[in-house]
Amino acid sequence: MKNKIIRSIFIVPVILYSLLLIALPIIYVLIISFYKNDSYGGMIRTFTLENYMSIFNSVYIGIFLKSFLIAVITMFICMIISYPFALAVSHKNAKTQSIFMTLVMVPFLTNSLIRMYGWIVLLRKNGVINQVLLSLNIIKNPLNLMYNNLGIVIGMVYTLLPFMILPLYSSISTIDYRLLEASSDLGANKWKTFTKVILPITFPALFNGGLMVFTPALGFFFIVDLLGGGKIMILGNLIKNQFLTARNWPFGAAIAILLIIITYILIMIYRKIGGKMDDLGA
Amino acid sequence: MRNNKLLDNIVIISVFIFLFLPIFVLILFSFNTSELNIIFEGFTLHWYKDLFYNRSLLEALINTLLVALSSTIISTIIGTISAYGLYKYDFKGKKIINELLYIPIVIPEIVLGISLLSIYTLMKMELGMFTLILAHITFSIPFVIVSVRSSLTSMDPNLEQAASDLGADSLTTFFRVILPSLVPGILSGAELAFSLSLDDVVISYFTAGPGSNTLPLHIYSIIKTGVTPDVNALISLMLLTIFIVLTISMVISLRKIKGDER
User: Fold this and answer.
1) Per the domain annotation, does B22 fall within a domain?
2) Chain A contact for B187 (CB, 8 A cutoff)
3) Is residue B11 part of a domain?
4) What is the pLDDT of residue A264?
5) In a domain, B115, yes or no
């Protein structure tokens, strides 16, 4: 009897939590996505596929493509920065490695919006970067560094970079050094060692990083709002607008469900290539 | 294999410049006599004094800390209990629960944000501090569970057996034997929960209401009209606090590495 009570102390909270705060809200969003929107911002309880159909409207297809493009570019830039960085850090001694990896995390302990504000101060027309370049006579007219795609990508890469660096670093730092020595003893050059030894070993980590950069990049509406200048929209902005300004919840819900489906397809692939769920996000 | 040290250092330094540039700029302008955050005109501590008279800013700061602290404490307790429950006991539907727990980690934040907003609306819950804290607890718990679980799996399984052989019941075993050996996992889980809460913009955007303005939401609302340097001053003070805490924890972990090398 007593053991039964103890057992329920340990398992009831997690069951309640995952059903009430994770499953229920998402199931409700799934249900809403089949409702119909009335013209007063309310919902009519029916069953319609209309919301999913209107995703294929050319306006929204454009937003989808734009979102994917921004997310893919962000992901690739993060990879291009993270690999050399993680490799360079792994060449240092244990103490330096630990200091460097802690330093990587320092900016991310401030709020992401605050850091975006820092970028605005740097990038805007009369911002720090333009002022410096102008006063050094490198440029004659201020550059448009934000309120365009460039600004958005800078903001996204900056915000999501650690999610690529961390898994890559922890995977690279476990590579047996003798493996790399063997590769070079056998006559492989650096590039060959990278593509034939390092890349295959770190591939699950690379995919992990890619996943944790790509999917959030579809949703970060505030980065697009602040650094994109209000004209550019990604999926996150579209969902936000449907829920808060246009008040068409069923359509917003349908896009959210689509985002969930995309995420789960990527996760299935990640699991197929041997990635562990507990390695994601931490 | 010989590594090019110079190239390594160039790569590391350029990444760190990229990472710290926006933060250094904010700190620099917190000492600027000009109000405009554009050109550095002269040194002043004026904005640090102003900070204490900016009521809406201070209120936002207090809300932010309140949400972060309470959601961290609650999610750490629930997360620790849950991680042990999932490790020790088998029950119907455990597989499904385990899958559900990954959802807040992997889905885009905006999806969780609008899901919670929808369910709050369905339940006719008024948006405010409570809904905001509940949302932060929701996205923090899985991270705590993952963190504590990694401590649990590296624990010696004989420990628990020994405790029960010596006559301890399962609660005593949990508090006296299991919990102490989980402390590193629990602490890193709590740390993660706290920083996730401080960092969050997207989920707070949907789940906060009037009267629960947090710092990021406050800055979001004033960013288009222009941010005054007292905000920079506040950010600088927060950074200073974070830096002190980090330095202390780094010194501790460096000692550990030294110990391991011996």
Assistant:
1) no
2) no
3) no
4) 93
5) yes
For residue range A173-219, what is the model confidence (pLDDT) as tens digits? 888 878 888 887 888 888 888 888 888 889 999 999 999 999 999 99
Residue ranges and CATH numbers for the domains of chain A are 58-279 (1.10.3720.10)
CATH number, domain of B243, equals: 1.10.3720.10
Q: Nearest CB to B201: which of A222, A249, A263?
A: A222
Interface-testing mutation among B5, B74, B110, with chain A (most A C-beta atoms within 10 A): B110
Domain that holds residue B73: 54-261
Map chain B to HEC letters: CCCCHHHHHHHHHHHHHHHHHHHHHHHHHCCECCCCCCCCCCECCHHHHHHHHCHHHHHHHHHHHHHHHHHHHHHHHHHHHHHHHHHHCCCCCHHHHHHHHHHHHHCCHHHHHHHHHHHHHHCCCCCCHHHHHHHHHHHHHHHHHHHHHHHHHCCCHHHHHHHHHCCCCHHHHHHHHHHHHHHHHHHHHHHHHHHHHHHCCHHHHHHCCCCCCCHHHHHHHHCCCCCCHHHHHHHHHHHHHHHHHHHHHHHHHHHHHHHHHC
pTM of the model: 0.90
B115, B199, B215 member nearest A108 (Cβ): B199
Domain for residue B1, yes or no? Answer: no
**ipTM of the complex model:** 0.90
**A28-79 per-position pLDDT tens digit:** 999 999 999 887 778 888 899 999 998 888 889 999 999 999 999 999 999 9
Give yes or no for B258 touching A (CB within 8 A).
yes
